[in-house]
């Protein structure tokens, strides 16, 4: 399922991809006429057929070169029906698509030809009723599912978790109060959310398999998952009494489908007590954690100051190092 790699980047961007007209090739790589529709019309007019194509017929002709012989034989005298053998029984799946663009009410499939994207499918379907939080990351599970949370009231209409299956072409829903509020994470086969005062885990069927509830109110900012069973969760303890709201690192294990809190620690105790760094995105690899910090808070005034730093946490030795960046206010880090 290599075709869904580009999904996470393209989800809900809210703009169209403008592409140039490209030459279309059949399966045997023989070049077809650049203006296929016009060539069909001219061919049948030459033998006395009156050809009047609907926009849908034109679209099918332009995007389904494998049906060329079928259209010639039928003379296009009746509405063109998609070839069931060439189109998946699933609504939005197209075997020619190399990647998909997903928005609130449409799923588009694109094929890359000479590094140029060409739209080969378009399916209008309601995916989200209200809205999603663009700051909450989407997840790709089992190299097959695109999973994300839809916000409930007051910002949205219906709190639920949504999974788009790019193998069977299904869209699954789970209406639950445990959707992701401010952050989410994923392992190979599980989706992690930060509902009110806790962490919840869902599988690829959107069934909730485990939940951990904190004793205090926590606002999460990011997840990192290592080896599918170690979860590192960044959160702010809003009941902790510190008006600068420092970031804590919560380490949880996930074994036998059960979450367990293993450790809670102050993420970074800076040498100057008058300021407190805050952290956003994180990554983990080989027991090494990296956290990006867009700045710090001044304790006396509660003001935020923009800065750029990465905190490196060696989980093997317990050492932490703050690395300055030339850029300020960095929020994302990628591996």
Order of helices and strands: HHHHEEEEEEEEEEEEEEEEEEEE
Helical/strand content category: mainly beta
Question: What's the helical proportion of residues?
Answer: under 10%
Strands, total number: 20
Q: Return Rg in Å.
A: 26 Å
Question: Keywords, please?
Answer:
single chain; 335 residues; mainly beta; 5-stranded antiparallel β-sheet; 4 helices
Quick recap:
With 335 residues, the chain is mainly beta. The chain is built from four helices and 20 strands.
Describe this structure in words.
The chain has 335 residues and is mainly beta. It has a domain at 2-124. It is 9% helix and 38% strand. It has helices at 7-10, 36-45, 55-63, 68-74, and strands at 99-102, 106-113, 116-124, 139-141, 145-150, 160-165, 171-175, 184-186, 191-193, 198-202, 208-213, 218-226, 230-237, 247-255, 258-266, 275-278, 282-285, 288-298, 304-314, 320-324. The strands form five sheets. Strands 16, 17, 18, 19 and 20 form a five-stranded antiparallel β-sheet that branches. It has a four-stranded antiparallel β-sheet with strand order 4-5-6-7, with no helix packed on it. A four-stranded antiparallel β-sheet has the order 8-9-10-11, with no helix packed on it. A hairpin with a 2-residue loop joins β2 (106-113) and β3 (116-124). It starts with 6 loop residues before the first helix and ends in an 11-residue tail after the last strand. The model is unreliable at 1-34 and 65-89 (pLDDT under 50).
SSE layout and pairing:
Blueprint: H1 7-10, H2 36-45, H3 55-63, H4 68-74, E1 99-102, E2 106-113, E3 116-124, E4 139-141, E5 145-150, E6 160-165, E7 171-175, E8 184-186, E9 191-193, E10 198-202, E11 208-213, E12 218-226, E13 230-237, E14 247-255, E15 258-266, E16 275-278, E17 282-285, E18 288-298, E19 304-314, E20 320-324
Antiparallel strand pairs: 1-2, 2-3, 4-5, 5-6, 6-7, 8-9, 9-10, 10-11, 12-13, 13-14, 14-15, 16-18, 17-18, 18-19, 19-20
């Amino acid at each position: 399922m290599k075709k869904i790699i580009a999904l996470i980047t393209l989800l809900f961007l809210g703009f169209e991809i403008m592409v140039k007209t490209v030459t279309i090739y059949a399966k045997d790589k023989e070049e077809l006429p650049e203006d296929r529709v016009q060539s069909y019309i001219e061919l049948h007019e030459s033998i006395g057929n009156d050809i009047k194509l609907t926009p849908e017929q034109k679209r099918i002709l332009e995007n389904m070169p494998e049906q060329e012989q079928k259209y010639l034989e039928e003379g296009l005298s009746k509405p063109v029906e998609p070839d069931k053998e060439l189109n998946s029984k699933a609504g939005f799946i197209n075997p020619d698509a190399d990647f998909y663009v997903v928005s609130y009410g449409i799923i588009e499939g694109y094929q890359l030809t000479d590094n140029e994207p060409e739209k080969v499918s378009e399916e209008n379907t309601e995916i989200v009723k209200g809205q999603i939080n663009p700051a909450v990351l989407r997840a790709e599970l089992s190299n097959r599912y695109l999973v994300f949370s839809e916000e409930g009231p007051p910002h949205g209409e219906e709190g639920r978790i949504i999974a788009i299956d790019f193998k069977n072409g299904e869209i699954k829903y789970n209406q639950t109060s445990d959707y992701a509020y401010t952050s989410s994470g994923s392992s190979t086969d599980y989706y992690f959310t930060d509902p009110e005062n806790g962490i919840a885990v869902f599988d690829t069927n959107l069934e909730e398999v485990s939940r951990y509830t904190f004793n205090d109110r926590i606002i999460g900012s990011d997840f990192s998952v290592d080896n599918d069973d170690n979860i590192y969760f960044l959160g702010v303890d809003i009941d902790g009494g510190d008006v600068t709201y420092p970031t804590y690192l919560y380490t949880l294990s996930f074994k036998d489908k059960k979450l367990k809190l293993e450790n809670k620690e102050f993420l970074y105790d800076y040498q100057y007590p008058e300021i407190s760094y805050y952290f956003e995105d994180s990554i983990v690899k080989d027991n090494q954690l990296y956290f990006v910090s867009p700045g710090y808070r001044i304790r006396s005034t509660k003001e935020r100051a923009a800065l750029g730093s990465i905190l490196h946490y060696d989980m093997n030795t317990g050492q932490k190092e703050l690395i300055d960046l030339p850029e300020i206010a960095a929020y994302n880090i990628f591996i």
